[in-house]
Amino acid sequence: MNSAPDLWRLLRPQQWVKNGFVFVGVLFANAWNQPRLIWRVVLAAIAFCLVASGVYIFNDLFDRELDRTHKNKKYRPLAAGRVSPGGAVLFLIVLWILAFAIAVLASRLVLGILLLYILLNIAYTLRLKDLVLLDVFIIAAGFMLRILAGTVGVGIPPSQWLLLCGLMLALFLGFTKRRAELYAFTGNDEGAPRRVLNHYHSVLLDKMIVITATCVILTYSLYTMSPTTIQTHRTESLIYTVPFVIYGIFRYLYSLHSQATGGEPSQELFRDPHILFSILGWLALTLWLVS
What CATH number does the domain located at 1-158 have? Predict the structure, then answer.
C-alpha cells in the first residue's frame, strides 16, 4: 500500500496539460526576451500542477466510496484501496506546502490565486458540483485563475479580449465534458455518477456548446484584429491562426458526437491526431508571427 506508482497515479499527471493556460500571458504579451519574467511564469505553472494534484487527491478522498461503484473510477488508487486515506492526506499536505513555497517565489499574488483555487475546489467538491450550470462555471473559473496567475500574478497586463476568449473556451470545455458524461451514462441502469447530470438534458447542453464554441471563435478572431494586438506584436497576420482554432473546435465536436469522446480535454488532446495537429499548428504559426 502507498507505493510510489500508486502515489504517482494519484497525482493524475496527465491532467497537468491544463496548466498550459498559465503560459497564455507570456505567449501573447511579447515577453519572450524577459528571462526572469518567464521563470516566474514557470514557477506559477509548477505550483499550479502541485496544487491541482492535491485537489484531485481531495476529490478522490471525498468520492472514494462512490468511485468504487463506477466501472472506470473503481481502479483509482484510493477507491481500489492501494493508497490509504491517511497516506493520501499526508501526501496532499506535502504537495500543497511545496506548491505554496514555489508560488511565493513567483509572487504573493500567485500564492493568493492558488489559495482561491483551493477554496473554490473544496466548495465545488463539497456542494457546488451538484448545482446545475454553476458547476460548469466553477470549472471555468479554475481555468481563468490559471490565466490570471500567468498574467496579473507576475505583472503581465492581460488583454480583455484574451480573457473573454479564455472564459468562453473554458465554458465550452466544461459543457462538452458534461455532454460526454451524458452520452456515457444514458441508459445506464446504475444511474449517472454525477447527481448534477440528472438536471442536464442533451438539447440544453448542445445549445450551450454551440453558443460557447461560437463565442470562442468570435472573441479570438476579434482579438487577432484588435489595434492593440497589432501594435503589441507589430503584425496584422495573427488572423491567419484562426483556421486552426476553428478546425480544432469542429474536430472536438466531431469526436464528441460521432465517437462519444471529448469528455476529458487532457486525454482527447493526445488521442485525436487532428486536434493535436490543430493545436501544434496554431502554436507554431503564432510563435513564428509574434517572435
Answer: 1.10.357.140
